[in-house]
Amino acid sequence: MDRERLADFLRRRREALQPEDVGLVAAARRRTPGLRREEVALLASMSSDYYTRLEQARGPQPSPQMLGAITRALHLSLTERDHLYRLGGQTPPASDVRSDHVSPGVRRVLDRIDTPAMVLNDLGEVLAQNAQAVALLGDETRFADGDLARSRVYRWFTDATARRIHPPEEHEEYSRSYTAMLHLAAGRHPDDPRTRAMVDGLRAASPEFAALWAGHDVTWRPGPERKTFLHPEVGAMQLDCEQLTAPRDGQLLLVYTATPGTDSAERLRLLEVVGHQRFADPVQAD
């Protein structure tokens, strides 16, 4: 770990970003350029003290999970991400199978969307969410690398609570769509151990998945085009789902919108207020 160079790199990347670049509202007057340290810590869901110690070259060696969170907070490019990992004494994530790195351009799009939106890879792992999507679905980026539960597909078949957000009459369509998603991923990356581990784990844990997998249906879309969300705080909402793909990276940007003038639109606006009130209490680093 190169503490001095890591601190310098973090400081320079932070100072190169403006609040509007990461979806934050800028204060009227700032005495220093770029983001504040506490803003980066908030975006990375870590304590301000932990991040400050890294920038002051006196922190502990950051884990891969911490470096991944900083990568997302600072909107680093793939080259910058790999450099950050090496300065932190960690091996950069492999990028020759599928890319889990969300490009700065896609992140800028995500930050400027004023309705729930998120980026997924072809295993159903959420790579990035905006604040509105966190308010709607919870933080789906909180899972550790290597944990099968990172995938919303895996959680759908193994955790009954994952289905509460949608009414029972929509469950079968989600199940079929998620299974088709994994079939397509397995065909795209036949030698990928992550895909094999997920498929094998699901076949062992879920008879429903095993039966659907045997059918080899690859007619995939992310559930119903108009989805019903049963939010515990604001109630039921009918939201349309639009998809934008990044074929080179095998990623999908999902954007959820409500028809203007409807109860769902009003509840979506209320959800944004609720989300801002409880959004992102920073977690303390170990």
UniProtKB/TrEMBL annotation:
Q: Which UniProt keywords apply?
A: DNA-binding
Q: Which InterPro entries match?
A: Cro/C1-type_HTH, Lambda_DNA-bd_dom_sf, MLTR_LBD
One example of the protein's molecular function in GO is: DNA binding
Query: Domain named HTH cro/C1-type: which ranges?
Result: 9-81
Signal peptide range equals none
Q: Which CDD domains match?
A: HTH_XRE
Q: Which Pfam families match?
A: HTH_31, MLTR_LBD
Tell me if DNA-binding is a UniProt keyword of this record.
yes
Provide the protein name: DNA-binding protein
